[in-house]
Amino acid sequence: MRGLGVGSALLDAIERHAATKGLKHLRLDVIDENTRARALYERHGFDARSHRSIGALKPIFGFRTATTMIKSVGST
User: Fold this and answer.
1) Which UniProt keywords apply (predicted)?
2) Which of 3, 39, 50, 63 has its Cβ near the most Cβ atoms within 10 Å?
3) Helix-strand-coil percent breakdown of the chain, rounded to 5?
C-alpha cells in the first residue's frame, strides 16, 4: 500500500482520535533502518527526540537502533 496515502490517513486518524481524548502529544518509535517510515513521520510533523541502541540483541530483532519521535497534537 506504499504510496497510496494509507500511512498518512492512519496518522491523521490517530491524531484526530488523540485530540478527542484531550491528549497533547503523540509518541512513536521507528527503527533507524526504516528510512521511508521515518520520512513519513517527519512529513507529518514528528520530531526525533532520542535514539536507543539495543546492543547485543541486534541478531534477534534485526535492527541496531530505534528513534523516539514526538508530535504535539493539533500541530501541522
Assistant:
1) Acyltransferase, Transferase
2) 63
3) 40, 30, 30
Is pLDDT above 70 for 75? no
Supply the DSSP symbol for 62. S
**Phi then psi for 64, rounded to 5 degrees?**
-100, -40
Contact between 70 and 23 (Cβ < 8 Å): no
Enumerate domains of the chain plus CATH numbers. Answer: 6-72 (3.40.630.30)
Amino acid identity, residue 35? Answer: T
pTM score, whole prediction: 0.86
Q: Long-range contacts of range 3-10, CB-CB < 8 Å, 24 or more positions apart?
A: 7/37, 7/40, 8/40, 8/43, 8/44
Cell of 31: 527503527
